[in-house]
Write a structure and sequence with these properties.
alpha/beta, Rossmann fold, about 25% strand
Length: about 300
């Protein structure tokens, strides 16, 4: 009888110890939504002294609790530079390469990663993620111009293959140099935008459409497309009129990356229905304009 009691006691002890161990190692998946936000006054100057209590964030009109807030820009950067190498840029490609190298020299730190992709009639990954600017520089030297413009394909593929599955603890940035006039993509604008929104990237676009840039004016429709990509993801369109202004556009992107607020919340809507959720951020102080991504796609079962 004593042996049986000891046996059952041991079995119960093992069971409860195993249960306690399992409980301590269960990880609850928290689907945090992170939104990068830029605040500016009426004169276009960055506002950098706002606090958590100054902001309110809404999802589909429902107020959400801000779980994390930071005005520091110490989150690692994940940057994808997409360069249009179609025939229209053949005379100006060197300037684009040099400006890109200067940009990476000024913005990349050891904790950041960047890739470079070129697109003309197809999309080519020139340099995969690295924080070595010399590697990027060497690969940029190999770029040559020619062919059509597969802008939508480039955004879609880079978001799906490189940005979507990356850590949510990084600021995901896409920088596009293009005239925005897609001519050969099999991907639609809508699908490319959806891929960007699902990946949580912010798109900055540098247009090559101004008259002084190539000696002739580009199509206004291209700028509209680039502006829409930037607006919907919380980024910005730059329209340099001279080649020298290309460097200034990169400098402005670099400056903006250092003046972002990071706002995170856990959605009250727990449904995994794959629907688009509209994000609205409000600030309690007057005279401040906010720029942020307009929404995201919920996970789908």
């Amino acid at each position: 009888m004593l042996k049986k009691t000891i046996f059952f006691t041991l079995i119960l002890a093992i069971f409860f110890n195993f249960f306690a161990f399992a409980q301590s190692n269960i990880k609850v998946k928290v689907e945090m939504v992170n939104v990068l936000c830029v605040a500016m006054n009426r004169n276009g100057k960055y506002i950098t002294n706002l606090k958590k209590d100054d902001f309110e964030i809404y999802e589909n009109g429902v107020k959400q609790k801000i779980e994390r807030f930071s005005s520091r820009t110490d989150l690692p950067l994940l940057i994808a530079l997409l360069i249009d190498t179609s025939a229209s840029v053949v005379d100006k490609l060197k300037f684009e390469k040099d400006a890109a190298v200067d940009f990476f020299n000024s913005v990349l730190s050891p904790k950041d990663l960047a890739l470079v992709a070129a697109f003309d009639s197809s999309v080519t990954l020139i340099q995969d993620f690295t924080n070595d600017v010399n590697e990027i520089k060497e690969q940029l030297k190999l770029l040559k111009a020619g062919g059509g413009t597969a802008l939508f394909d480039a955004i879609y593929l880079i978001c799906q293959e490189k940005m979507r599955w990356s850590s949510q603890d990084k600021r995901k940035i896409i920088v596009i140099i293009s005239d925005g006039d897609d001519t050969v993509s099999s991907t639609t604008y809508e699908d490319a935008l959806k891929a960007a929104q699902e990946s949580g990237v912010v798109i900055y676009a540098i247009s090559t459409n101004r008259a002084g840039y190539f000696g002739h004016a580009g199509k206004k429709e291209g700028d509209t497309i680039l502006k829409d990509f930037a607006k919907e993801t919380g980024g910005k369109l730059f329209t340099p009129s001279l080649l020298s202004d290309l460097y200034k556009s990169f400098e402005e992107i670099n400056k903006e990356l250092r003046n972002q607020y990071s706002i995170s919340y856990i959605p009250t809507n727990k449904k995994h229905d794959g629907t688009f959720r509209k994000i609205t951020i409000k600030v309690k102080k007057r005279g401040i304009k906010l720029r942020y991504r307009k929404g995201y796609y919920a996970p789908k079962e």
